[in-house]
Amino acid sequence: MERRKNMKKSIKEFALNLGMDDVGVAAAADYQSPRSPKLDTIFPGVKSIVVMAYKEPSSCESSNMQIAMSGRMDVMEFSRSCNYRMSRFLEREFGGTAMATPASYPMEMSMETMGAIGDVSLRHAAIAAGLGVMGRHNLVIHPKLGTRVIFTAILTDLEIASDSPCTEELCIHCDVCVEQCPAGALDEENRTDVGKCLRSSQPYGIGNSIRFWSKFADGTPEEKKKMVKSVDFWRMYQAGFIGFQYFCWNCMKSCPVGQKQEKASTQE
């Protein structure tokens, strides 16, 4: 009984001891996403969401996309481990049921979602859990980590009160993210043109695969030989082998909010 009384405190201590950068909690009723499915279609008994924040490595600043993507894969691997350990902790310590939501794939791949709508909107979950506010780039800005942060979440039937929302005006409306987007995906305020973004940020994703193999199917034997020896095919093969690959981090790395505080904290 006493442990349940201090449940939120115990959850946060456990998360920070695992090496996460921040953690927040939202009551399921406080989570609102305009496009993702309702939480009870995933977990009918869900009452709360534990949202965990992870600093994006400085690798994202590299002009070498292999190094940049490697940093993202490192934090995703770490976050999956944290998801498992937090789920075990909630079930073992408090007797709840816990379902983990990853930072990215797998997600529903259908004509309705076009592979661009998460089963749980981690941005909206993070905001509901008091971990930040939405910026001009439509990414969550964390009070200390700025935009260089990714999230995972645990859905649970444990009843935990929401943390207070972040009320700071963190976005400085400098429009650097808009100017630095090579695809023009942020030109319309409060909307990210996902098609434009994906063509630029994931040029060797499913769209390119469809175009490549459609052209391959119609090609002559000589054209097919040439295609499978092309750099385009090699990059597509690697992306399919290791998982999706980003070739653009501009919206995240160009945002000035949080960078000074983060570097000062690191130096301390």
Model description:
- By secondary structure, the chain is α+β, with helices and mostly antiparallel strands.
- It folds into 2 domains: 2-172, NADH Oxidase, CATH 3.40.109; 203-242, no CATH class.
- Helices cover 44% and strands 11% of the residues.
- The chain contains 12 helices and 6 strands.
- The protein has helices at 2-5, 7-18, 39-42, 65-94, 122-128, 176-180, 194-201, 206-218, 221-228, 231-242, 250-254, 259-267, and strands at 22-27, 48-55, 98-101, 133-134, 140-141, 149-156.
- Strands 1-2-6-3 form a 4-stranded antiparallel β-sheet, sandwiched between helices.
- The model has no long low-confidence stretch (mean pLDDT 91).
Topology:
Blueprint: H1 2-5, H2 7-18, E1 22-27, H3 39-42, E2 48-55, H4 65-94, E3 98-101, H5 122-128, E4 133-134, E5 140-141, E6 149-156, H6 176-180, H7 194-201, H8 206-218, H9 221-228, H10 231-242, H11 250-254, H12 259-267
Antiparallel strand pairs: 1-2, 2-6, 3-6, 4-5
Count of strand segments? 6
Residue-averaged pLDDT: 91
How many structural domains can be distinguished in the coordinates?
2
Low-confidence stretches: none
> How large is the count of helical segments?
12
Provide the CATH top-level class of the largest domain: Alpha Beta
Can you give the helix content as a percent range?
40-55%
Biggest sheet strand order reads: 1-2-6-3
Order of helices and strands: HHEHEHEHEEEHHHHHHH
Most strands sheet: 4 strands, antiparallel
Find the structural class using helix and strand composition.
alpha+beta
Report the CATH architecture of the largest domain.
Answer: 3-Layer(aba) Sandwich
Strand content: 5-15%
- Global geometry: globular
The radius of gyration is 20 Å
CATH topology category name of the largest domain: NADH Oxidase
End-to-end C-alpha gap: 39 Å
